[in-house]
Amino acid sequence: IADQLVPLHDLLHLHSERASLGSSTGSSTRHATLARPERYGRPEPTDIFLKTRRILAESTRSLADILGAKFVFADLRTPFLLQLYLPSPSQSDIRTVLRELNERLGAVVRCVPRRPLREQVVTSIFKACAQAFEIVLLHGGPRRIFTPDDANVVSRDLKLLQDFFVARDASGLPQGVPALDAEDISKPLRRLAHLMAIPSQSLIEHEAAVMDDGDQRQMIAQLLARRGDVVSKRWSGKQARQLGAHPTLRTI
Question: Which residues form the MHD2 domain (predicted)?
Answer without folding.
Answer: 92-207
